[in-house]
Specification:
There is one protein chain. This protein has six helices and seven strands. The chain is of the alpha/beta class. It has a single domain, classed as Rossmann fold. Strands 3-2-1-4-5-6-7 form a seven-stranded mixed beta sheet, sandwiched between helices. Helix 1 packs parallel to helix 6. The longest helix has 25 residues. It is globular and about 50 Å long.
């Protein structure tokens, strides 16, 4: 693949705290498998989309660095611990700084990153979260979509990160499947828009039935 192709960096931030144990975390794993399969079937996504996975429980870690789709390997993870969303955002920003190519005199850099956050709780690392909110506001990110899953999640912290909060009322396998199918469709639409319009426009993919975008 041409190393100077402008890449679309996609960062998935996945909640792996204890409340995700059991069916929810297994549904997330299946959702990531489906996401990769769907994207590999789209030539424009294969050409432009690069994917990273960051998980967060009591701590955050990047399980998959920014990787082209055809070389992506499904990460192994389980659910336990607290909800260090602030640390996850700080890890993400550090990864963006290291991995996303900047403009040079020779060629244009990557497109601005797109971020998808999936959580069923509220950040437990309040100090780190406050620092992360300020840093995210100053970062050059194309779009952030936060999915609030289940009845226990608090919307207000997510609204501090992004204007686009997607509410999933239940944490059933079907809803997680719908979410990842929506993410796949959104990435495909964004990749196509970049190729046709040479612009990293916001995601306009209609939300799945039963989901609501709160702005």
């Amino acid at each position: 693949m041409n190393e100077y192709v402008r890449r679309l960096p996609i960062y998935l931030l996945i909640d792996t705290s204890g409340s995700m144990m059991g069916e929810p975390i297994e549904a997330v794993k299946q959702g990531i498998r489906t996401l990769i399969t769907e994207l590999k079937g789209d030539p424009q996504a294969v050409e432009t989309a690069y994917l990273s996975v960051i998980t967060f429980d009591s701590h955050a870690r990047q399980l998959v660095p920014l990787t082209e789709l055809m070389k992506f390997s499904e990460p192994e993870f389980s659910a336990s611990g607290a909800t260090a969303l602030g640390e996850a955002l700080l890890v993400m920003l550090d990864c963006i700084k290291k991995e996303v190519r900047k403009n040079t005199d020779v060629h244009k850099g990557d497109w601005r990153p797109f971020v998808f956050i999936l959580t069923d709780g509220s950040p437990t690392d309040t100090e780190a979260f406050s620092r992360a909110v300020d840093a995210v506001r100053n970062a050059d990110i194309g779009n952030i979509i936060a999915c609030a899953a289940g009845a226990k999640v608090k919307i207000e912290p997510l609204k501090r990160i992004t204007k686009n909060v997607l509410i999933m009322n239940t944490i059933s396998a079907g809803d997680f499947s719908n979410f990842f199918e929506w993410v796949s469709g959104s990435i495909k639409m964004t990749s196509k828009s970049m190729v046709l319009n040479n612009a990293d426009n916001g995601i306009e993919n209609p939300v799945p039935q039963g989901f609501v975008i709160v702005s």
